Amino acid sequence: MSAGRVVIYGGKGALGSACVDYFKANNYWVGSIDLTENEKANVSIVVPRDAPWSEQEGTVVSKVGESLAGEKLDAVICVAGGWAGGNAKKDLAKNSDLMWKQSVWTSAISAAVAAQHLKEGGLLALTGAKPALEGTPGMIGYGMAKAAVHQLTRSLGAEKSGLPAGSLAVSILPVTLDTPMNRKWMPDADFGTWTSLDEVAGLFLKWTQAQERPKTGSLLQLITKNGVTELIAAE
């Protein structure tokens, strides 16, 4: 018997892989959704990379349904995304388009999955970004996309959003996650201010199990100092 069922959108990325491993270790059935397969997941749904948004949504929603065979999900967790820098002078549309696909498409598709397949009182977790609470002149496309995820979270946390009754819609707003790639690109940074992947996965597990849940619609900044992370809700 599994403890429950969760799907991780972005299940092959650094944080997504950590979430798949963490939930598996806690006896959950885990589905991964990504552009490539995660062989550790119970089911791995590979999204057609070049398909339009609506087609991606249709594919993912129906494949999740097939894999559940009538069961419901305890959580839908979207940790897909990416980063691109750049201001308005160069490649604004190109960078913004990429960020939109990586963050907004995935978050919206996750919401559609949750609306169809999440159980009442289940968790929908998305990934915003603390810098996008303000202007992001050095990464405009990224800031726009993450701000859209924040808006989506607020909407999903309101009444008549289409999510099941009693569900929790929330976004985590990390500053920097402690991933191998980030260590490679920022070797001189203060890693004590970076949030560990297992810590984030642990938060998701707690909320999935209805422990220490924040208010629905919350944007939760993950502020790490000296290796200790606190959650601060953005106004």
Q: What can you see in these coordinates?
A:
Helices cover 38% and strands 22% of the residues. It is α/β, with parallel strands linked by helices. The chain has a single domain (4-234), classed as Rossmann fold, CATH 3.40.50. An eight-stranded mixed sheet has the order 3-2-1-4-5-6-7-8, sandwiched between helices. Helix 1 crosses helix 6 (197-208), helix 2 packs parallel to helix 3 and helix 3 packs parallel to helix 4 (140-156).
What does this entry show, briefly?
The protein is of the alpha/beta class and 235 residues long. It has helices at residues 14-25, 53-68, 92-117, 140-156, 180-185, 197-208, and strands spanning 5-9, 29-34, 43-46, 73-78, 118-127, 168-174, 218-225, 228-233.
Task: Walk me through the topology.
Blueprint: E1 5-9, H1 14-25, E2 29-34, E3 43-46, H2 53-68, E4 73-78, H3 92-117, E5 118-127, H4 140-156, E6 168-174, H5 180-185, H6 197-208, E7 218-225, E8 228-233
